[in-house]
Amino acid sequence: MTPQAALDRGLGELALVLPSGAPGKLMAYLGLLAKWNRTYNLTAIRDPMQVVSHHLLDSLAVLRDLSESAGTLADVGSGGGLPGIPIAIAEPARRVTLNDASEKKGAFLRQAVIELGLSNATVHVGRVEEWHPAEGFAVVISRGFASLVDFLASCRHLAAPSGVLAAMKGAYPGDELARVPADCDCHEVRRLKVPLLHAERHLVLCRIGS
Asked: Which of 13, 86, 164, 172 has its CB surrounded by the most CB atoms within 10 Å?
């Protein structure tokens, strides 16, 4: 199976209807990751088939669970643009901001936005704790934080009053959920089924109390 065939199969299993040209942009993004990864070490995964399953489809698997949270999205600790770039490609009507503290990764993110023609995406380079956007985001998402508690502590100020903080996790994070602050409601934990990926995936949706 080719990476393109794997992507097509995965999109079918996710039952996602993407805009015209989106699958091609996802494959172009895969190519950009591979090219820049030789110098910038954006991801430890270098096999194109694994990039499709572990990165592209893993990122797109959250879309159904974010559909009720329409509006702006911030991908914090975006690194190589995951999950923010696949989301921006799949949902061109959603404004997406990609954030990373690394200038090198920020350079890649800016170039990817330009080359992929993502008019709905912007890049903010800097530590998330020091980032104070003019308006809060409807969704603040991350795959990059080691702990749920750290994610909430560092990023809660980025969410709009009615916004959601979405943490992408592997196995069910029971121990992390037990340490969530009392003013954070993280009871919504969605199990994700990622095509071609034989591993547990969960999405933790948190809301901050007033």
From this structure: 86
